């Protein structure tokens, strides 16, 4: 799909202005929003803020604080019973920007970017993401970053809750089967699949989708004014080109 007429430098008017901007990319797990956000940020010369990584960061910190329970259900029970003593501020989590503008996720100043991508963290993140105080913490971290620089932010409620006033909102979607295949490939490339099958991942994704869409706050939804893009049959670069086309029109 690569359209050679789509040239990022046509966006320089906004990029060179003093006005900070936020581009919101929402969508379910595995829709490609994080990878696409990273590519788009590099093309536009701005920062990619990965809200999912922030939830993973808080999840890993909570796991370390509470001890790794036998399974995610046991962890959820322990987490809920510890909320009076366990607050986001107590977990030592911080997000820093590296020399190249990359997001560095830290616990007590230590980069834990690899550790937050394990299946154990993935299985437990639902409990963190469903707790209001932890969502508020992530939202505040994102808003603090937006005070410093222009951002491309991916998540589930970025255009609806975190930055509802931004003019640039997109919702990336794909079938659960396609998203499961993408996730399995990613895990295998990193040697972290632990023998899980595409069918098992698809079931997990469908369960996560249902939870995300029915959450009482910060639910997964298409924000008002957002452009819906089905990425099921598109490569990452194809999606980026579509986004650039829409951004040119907007800008």
Account of the protein in words:
The chain is of the alpha/beta class and 251 residues long. It has 2 domains: 20-46 and 150-245, Rossmann fold, CATH 3.40.50; 47-141, P-loop containing nucleotide triphosphate hydrolases (Rossmann fold), CATH 3.40.50. It is 48% helix and 14% strand. The chain contains 10 helices and 8 strands. It has helices at residues 12-15, 33-44, 51-66, 72-81, 119-129, 132-148, 158-162, 176-189, 198-214, 236-250; strands at 22-26, 47-50, 93-97, 103-107, 110-111, 151-155, 168-173, 227-230. The protein has a 5-stranded parallel β-sheet, with helices on both faces. A 3-stranded antiparallel β-sheet has the order 3-4-5, covered by helices on one side. A hairpin with a 2-residue loop joins strand 4 (103-107) and strand 5. Helix 8 packs across helix 9 (198-214). The protein starts with 11 loop residues before the first helix and ends with a helix. Mean pLDDT is 88; it is low at 1-15.
């Amino acid at each position: 799909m690569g359209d050679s007429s789509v040239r990022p430098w046509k966006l320089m008017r906004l990029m060179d202005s003093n006005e900070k901007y936020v581009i919101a990319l929402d969508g379910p797990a595995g829709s490609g929003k994080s990878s696409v956000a990273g590519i788009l940020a590099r093309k536009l010369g701005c920062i990619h803020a990965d809200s999912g990584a922030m939830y993973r960061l808080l999840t890993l910190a909570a796991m370390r604080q509470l001890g790794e329970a036998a399974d995610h259900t046991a962890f959820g029970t322990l987490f809920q019973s510890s909320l009076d003593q366990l607050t986001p501020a107590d977990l030592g989590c911080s997000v820093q920007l590296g020399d190249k503008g990359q997001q560095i996720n830290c616990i007590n100043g230590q980069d834990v970017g690899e550790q937050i991508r394990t299946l154990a963290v993935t299985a437990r993140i639902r409990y963190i993401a469903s707790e209001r105080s932890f969502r508020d913490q992530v939202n505040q971290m994102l808003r603090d970053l937006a005070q410093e620089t222009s951002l491309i932010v991916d998540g589930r409620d970025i255009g609806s809750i975190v930055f509802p006033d931004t003019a640039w909102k997109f919702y990336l979607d794909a079938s659960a089967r396609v998203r499961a295949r993408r996730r399995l490939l990613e895990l295998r490339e990193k040697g972290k699949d632990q023998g899980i099958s595409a069918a098992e991942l698809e079931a997990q994704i469908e369960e996560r989708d249902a939870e995300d869409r029915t959450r009482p706050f910060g639910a997964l939804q298409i924000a008002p004014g957002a452009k819906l893009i089905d990425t099921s049959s598109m490569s990452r670069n194809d999606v980026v080109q579509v986004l650039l086309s829409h951004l040119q029109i907007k800008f």
